[in-house]
Design brief:
This protein has helices spanning 13-21, 33-49, 64-76, 90-100, 116-123, 130-143, 156-162, 190-195, 205-208, 213-225, and strands at residues 3-7, 28-32, 53-60, 81-85, 104-108, 148-150, 168-171, 200-203. It is an alpha/beta fold. It has one domain (3-225): TIM Barrel (Alpha-Beta Barrel). Helix 3 runs parallel beside helix 4 (90-100). The termini are close together. The protein binds cytidine-5'-monophosphate. Cytidine-5'-monophosphate binds next to strand 8.
Length: 226
């Protein structure tokens, strides 16, 4: 059983409102840096007033004091989940977790836009393999006390093995058999991903671009609950 989170990747706060008006069964909404920059904190408050759990996906990576301050601000606004980069280091993750209160902090490991060569170049190492790196960073997130980790469908098994029981495993790249992959390279179905241990499935375009978004959302929720 996993929760379905709608990625609100829309061009404006008004577009988000119009979509949400059509989705009374939605429980979770993800706000990323584009919509946050457009709609800001008032939109977050509005989502809460609509009864939604808000996932604030701003992928913080800064000095510990600053990240802790941002996390505290999220806690004050009733945010349910937020992302930080595990590459920010143990001190940053611990400071963030200390400020989190009820916010479930989840760690981003290796961005899926990296290939091994690009990641190796960015971190100054030769011969890096990505899956062991994801595993190492997921273990670091768990050691720092984070609530969980974000990972791709290809990483679910290795990350599940690094996290304590009950930890959150938040997975984007979810598609039904009939959906277009879009630019997602590694995709997986909701039922299979939930069965492998994901606790939250992030879905955007299959719902955002549907002619009947409520019907598609209902299908994702039913599959994730099976
Ligand atoms: O439209 P789609 O279902 O591909 O949206 C997935 C959401 O998850 C987007 O908001 C995207 O930015 C996010 N995401 C992702 N892959 C990652 C991390 C986040 O697709 N590795």
């Amino acid at each position: 059983m996993a929760e379905v989170i709608l990625a609100l990747d829309v061009e404006s706060a008004d577009a988000a409102r119009r979509l949400l008006d059509r989705l009374p069964d939605l429980r979770w909404a993800k706000v990323g840096s584009v919509l946050m920059t457009r709609g800001g904190a008032p939109l977050l408050a509005e989502l809460r007033e609509r009864g939604l759990q808000v996932f604030l996906d701003l992928k913080w990576h800064d000095i510990p004091h600053t990240v802790a301050g941002a996390v505290a601000a999220a806690a004050a606004q009733g945010i349910a989940m937020a992302t930080i980069h595990t590459l920010g280091g143990a001190a940053m993750m611990r400071a963030a977790q200390a400020a989190a209160g009820p916010v479930g902090l989840v760690g981003v490991t290796v961005l899926t836009s990296h290939d091994a060569e690009g990641y190796g170049a960015a971190t100054g190492r030769d011969g890096v393999e990505l899956l062991p790196e994801v595993s190492r960073l997921a273990a670091a997130a768990a050691a720092a006390g984070l609530r969980g980790v974000v990972c791709s469908p290809a990483e679910v098994d290795v990350v599940r093995g690094q996290l304590p029981r009950g930890a959150w495993l938040v997975v984007p790249g979810i598609r039904r058999a009939a959906d277009a992959a879009g630019d997602q390279v590694r995709i997986a179905a909701p039922r299979e991903t939930a069965a492998r241990g994901a606790t939250h499935l992030v879905v955007g375009r299959p719902i955002l671009h549907a002619s009947d978004p409520a019907a598609v959302l209902a299908e994702f929720i039913a599959e994730a609950a099976a």
